[in-house]
Design brief:
6-stranded parallel sheet; OB fold (Dihydrolipoamide Acetyltransferase, E2P); alpha/beta
Length: 684
């Protein structure tokens, strides 16, 4: 019976409403009864501030109960009517003024008592302009009200939507059985589901509203964490003891010795922790999170070498062909010197070559496969896949991680992200992963000098400065938000930027790179830039991650207000990789306060974790990580930056529950809700 709440909304009659209203409901994105009763207010009109006239002190939003003493109307200079009344409650007199409502002179009766709601302003005496009024039958019991305010459409007023929800709650609220286990409800004093639904829409008082908000904060996190951690629990239970590592490290040692520098303490800590888990036969589900240039890739290479040396295959998956190709070119020589066969598998590999490669992978002759989403495809079979590394984790969701795990007899998985994430967000969005943080940069890295360019004089100086650096032998990136000129957007395109740069920096070789190019053309441009044949590379966001040219020491980002903080930080991280001082110029004439705040943050700090936290304050988590991140973008009651205690509490509650129940969700209602919540993300 409970599953019916996820069926068509039209299966649930709403007394007094016709087909037109159902069409309006669907315009709001509401398709079923669950979505209707979970269509929560975006705010509230709190009318509980009941005041006596004699207690008024300054401007405030109040509810006043009083008798009308006088009421009259008069014409204003623009010949429109104004209605003016005086009321008293025995403690003072208040003026009420309405514009363009002449009918009120007949509607409101002298001597009658009414309730008036509105903003009070101080004049010769206190005034209330255009107040709402109510006739309340039992005025002595009226203590105010908290009215919900919804996001709605032109064809549906707030009052109609409120009435729809009133009827919906009254008729069908009892269908919403409890989806939080009773033991958890009791232990943490959580408001029951039906009562919470009533009080989130039509609160009895402020205390009940806060209790309802707390309940739904716990519920949404509980569903998110339960859905994610259950999968993790089952993976751990099924996988433990299914493989054995002999602990061979000769190839690892040989690779480390060839690096020519020492690993940082942060890198060693993460590696040691993962080695320990592997040696104990435990399934690895690890997020390696670190700032741009912190050395995550080296950690991944060492772990891949370790697993290959001990008899398994490895896979390294990147979000773009450019990045996959770059990983391949940078690793093939090293690995083949160590006697390890490496292959590149991307969507552009077709026909006979692809078939031959797939056979070699299935036989186990290829020990390391580097590729894109192509690795996930069903026809790709491994003989003995031991470890999967995903680069740039924020580009992949839970579904892709699951598809990769299903490739091997093992489920060992390491994901890397150069988008530093506040711990609170990591706890929720990566609930199925252990989080290892590399918060230390290799020694000798120079801070990148960053400047916001917001006028033509500074822009001229910038171009002169870049010209000098190019003559010294350095290289530069220029990034634009668009490929081609747009009528709708005022931002500069790569084509326009190409013309501008070629004019300002005559005599230098300029290359153009964007997503519409074929892979062969992209590779030619990138290789030309790496070799130094191209001095300036103009690009879109295709160079956001992974591109590594140590001689490139200048990054210029055009219309930088169009990018998020984390993206700008990623782009800046493309420079600062060599021995030379590096520079980042953010070109923007924005007057938008949020955009200005972003650019100032980048000028002031290079700490990726601090930048990510500020980005979350300025934007929603869902905007940063995409709508596919397992419900993270659906969180309505949790402030992902500040509510770390609640996030940690719920994660602990869920972990304890799954341990007690051997990974089984005993509450059938919760099981159905989780299945519905994760349905889209697990099939995409």
């Amino acid at each position: 019976m409970y599953k019916k709440i996820y069926e068509n909304i039209e299966e649930f009659p709403l007394d007094g409403f016709n087909e037109k209203v159902y069409r309006g409901i669907k315009k709001l994105g509401i398709k079923n009864l669950y979505e209707l009763l979970y269509y929560f207010p975006r705010g509230y009109d709190n009318r509980t501030n009941m005041k006596k006239i004699g207690d008024l002190r300054g401007e405030e939003y109040v509810v006043i109960k009083g008798n009308i003493m006088t009421i009259n109307s008069q014409f204003m200079k623009n010949k429109k009517k104004m209605v003016k009344a005086k009321i008293t409650d025995g403690t003072g007199i208040l003026d009420l003024i309405w514009f363009q409502m002449p009918y009120l002179q007949k509607t409101l009766k002298i001597g009658e008592e009414y309730i008036f709601i509105g903003n009070v302003k101080r004049g010769y005496i206190f005034q209330m302009i255009n107040p709402e009024y109510k006739i309340v039958k039992n005025q002595d019991s009226f203590t105010g009200e908290i009215l919900p305010i919804y996001s709605t459409v032109k064809t549906m007023s707030q009052n109609v939507l409120r009435r729809i929800l009133e009827i919906g709650l009254e008729k069908y609220g009892a269908l919403f059985e409890e989806n939080i286990p009773e033991k958890i409800i009791s232990k943490y004093s959580i408001l029951g589901r039906e009562e919470a639904l009533k009080n989130i829409h039509f609160p009895e008082n402020e205390k009940k509203l806060e209790e309802a908000k707390r309940r739904f904060a716990i519920e949404e996190l509980l569903m998110l964490e339960m859905g994610i951690l259950q999968k993790r629990f089952l993976v751990d239970e099924e996988g433990t003891g299914k493989y054995k590592i002999d602990g061979k490290k000769e190839l690892v040692k040989e690779y480390v010795d060839s690096l020519g520098f020492q690993l940082t303490k942060a890198q060693k800590k993460v590696i040691t922790e993962i080695y320990k888990n592997l040696n104990e036969g435990r399934i690895i589900n690890h997020l390696i999170q670190g700032d741009v240039g912190s050395g995550k890739t080296i950690v991944a290479i060492l772990l891949l070498l370790y697993i290959i040396e001990n008899g398994y295959q490895g896979a390294l998956m990147a979000p773009t062909e450019i990045l996959a190709n770059q990983h391949y070119l940078s690793l093939i020589e090293t690995f083949e010197k160590l006697g390890i066969k490496v292959a590149l598998l991307t969507g552009s590999l077709k026909g006979k070559k692809r078939e031959e490669l797939l056979k070699e992978i299935e036989k186990g002759n290829i020990k390391l496969v580097i590729g894109t989403h192509a690795i996930i495809q069903e026809n790709v079979k491994f003989k003995r896949l031991g470890l999967i590394v995903i680069d740039e984790q924020h580009r992949f969701g839970v579904a892709q991680r699951k598809a990769l795990r299903d490739k091997g007899i093992l489920s060992n998985l390491i994901v890397m992200s150069a988008t530093p994430i506040p711990r609170s967000l990591a706890l929720s969005i990566y609930g199925d992963l252990d989080v290892g943080i590399i918060d230390e940069l290799p020694p000798g890295r120079k801070p990148i000098k960053t400047k916001w360019i917001n006028n033509e004089i500074d822009k001229e100086k910038m171009y002169n400065f870049i010209g000098k650096k190019l003559l010294e032998g350095r290289q530069a990136y220029f990034v634009a938000p668009l490929i081609e000129e747009s009528e709708k957007l005022s931002a500069k395109s790569t084509m326009e930027l190409f013309e501008e740069v070629s004019t300002y920096l005559k005599g230098f070789r300029v290359g153009l790179l964007h997503g519409k190019m074929g892979n062969k053309e992209k590779d030619e441009i990138m290789n030309g830039f790496k070799k130094g044949d191209i001095n300036i590379l103009i690009s879109t966001l295709v160079i956001e991650v992974g591109v590594n040219v140590p001689n490139a020491s200048i990054m210029v980002i055009s219309d930088s207000e169009r990018f998020g903080l984390s993206t700008l930080h990623q782009l800046r991280g493309r420079v600062g990789r060599g021995e030379h001082q590096s520079y980042c110029f953010l070109i923007s004439k924005t007057e938008n306060m949020t955009s200005e705040a972003r650019l100032k943050i980048l000028e002031e700090t290079q700490d990726g974790f601090k930048i990510a936290e500020e980005d979350l304050k300025l934007r929603k988590a869902g905007e940063i990580f995409g709508t596919r991140q397992s419900g993270i973008s659906d969180l309505k009651f949790i402030d992902i930056v500040h509510d770390i205690k609640t996030i940690k509490l719920v994660k602990d509650i869920v972990t304890e529950y799954l341990k007690e129940n051997r990974g089984e969700i005993k509450n059938k209602i919760l099981e159905i809700d989780i299945e519905e919540k994760f349905k889209d993300s697990l099939t995409s």
